Amino acid sequence: MINYDVIIVGAGPAGIGVASLLSQSDLNHLILDKSEIGNSFLDWPKNMEMITPSFPSNAFGQMDLNSIFESTSPAFAFNKEHLTGDEYAIYLSGVADYRELNVERNNEVKSVSEEENGWAVETQKGTYSCKYLIWAAGEFQNPKIENISGKEHCIHSSLIKSPDELKEDNFVVIGGYESGIQMAFDLVQNNKKVTVINPEIIDDMETSDPSRVLSPYTYTKYDTLKSSELYTEIIGEAETVSKTENGYKVQLKNDTSLETESKPICATGFSLVKKPIEHLITNREDGFPKLDEKTDELFEKKNIYLTGPSVRHDDHIFCFIYKFRQRFGVIVEDILLKEEYKKENVSVLVDGWKRNGMYLSDLSCCGEECVC
């Protein structure tokens, strides 16, 4: 069994980001990924772009919103604001090379078990042990279709890599958040008729939190959609999907229904890849893992942490890179202090992480709204 101080599962922005902070210490680490660095981004539809804009503002004390380590900027690397998935995966690989991170590709984690002094991580290539385990497996590899009877007749939006190659002329999209509007926009651009079903008014702007409403980037596309004769919007919840002689029928909870010749497209989000650690997780009422607010350790567990878009604290949602990167430093600080690094040395690191938006311990500021 090979021993490490820290094992990180997942080589996406969360895993590469938190490992980059760890690399500022002399703790030995290993990043395990079942595929490649940034694999989820490599699986994105080819015309899909990041909705959060990148800008090389590092020199003025504001790190690029999509950066995961200081002195790096996706915008600078590609000279554009909205990177494709392929481009962002290249950026992540660049950060891994820059920080000389220890990444083991194509090695899937099968199980995790608690040991007397840490964790045993069983993979397809053998078993590893560590004092500290950071779960950064993300969500994109686990598309979610819930509360719809007949979901086998649907297709998740993430599985449609080239919307412009779809042959049918009439589509139903279930879900009107970012990926749903993006899918509808792409289809209408290719002269397809699209009906979007969403439980609430899509352009309701009661909050400025982009975790709850459309980002400005997507809203611009939504504005274009609303003016198209090919676009229809229905407020309601899909309850059942059934196969018909000529296609598919979507039944809503309000007893209305609609027919479509193609499989309904579910833009219904993702959930944490958690099977190997599921037995260690206590869920909140909303189904997300319950965490220690101070350290992001799993509830009532020690030295096993969660990082990435599934992090939740109270009503605070850390689903974007510029949000969840703010908890990287909280995790690494906890590990360094447990390893009895000098507090003054850790404080120097923490001060740097704070300046670069990678350390947020006071969650009271997260509820602030824009006023104009």
| CATH topology call of the largest domain | FAD/NAD(P)-binding domain
Name the helicity range. Answer: 10-25%
Mean pLDDT: 94
Proportion of residues in extended strands = 15-25%
Structural class: alpha/beta
The shape, in one word, is globular
How many domains, as an integer?
2
Low-confidence stretches: none
Q: Give me the CATH superfamily of the largest domain.
A: FAD/NAD(P)-binding domain
Number of extended strands: 17
N-to-C SSE string, H for helix and E for strand: EHEHHHEEEEEEHEHEEEEEEEEHHH
Provide the CATH top-level class of the largest domain: Alpha Beta
Instruction: Provide the CATH architecture of the largest domain.
Output: 3-Layer(bba) Sandwich
Biggest β-sheet: count, sense, barrel?
7 strands, mixed
User: Helix tally?
Assistant: 9
Explain this structure to me?
This protein is of the alpha/beta class and 372 residues long. It folds into two domains: 2-141 and 270-367, FAD/NAD(P)-binding domain; 151-266, FAD/NAD(P)-binding domain. The protein is built from nine helices and 17 strands. Strands 1, 2, 3, 4, 5, 6 and 15 form a seven-stranded mixed beta sheet that branches. Helix 1 (13-22) runs parallel beside helix 8 (328-338). The longest helix has 14 residues, at 85-98. The radius of gyration is 22 Å and the shape is globular. The mean pLDDT is 94.
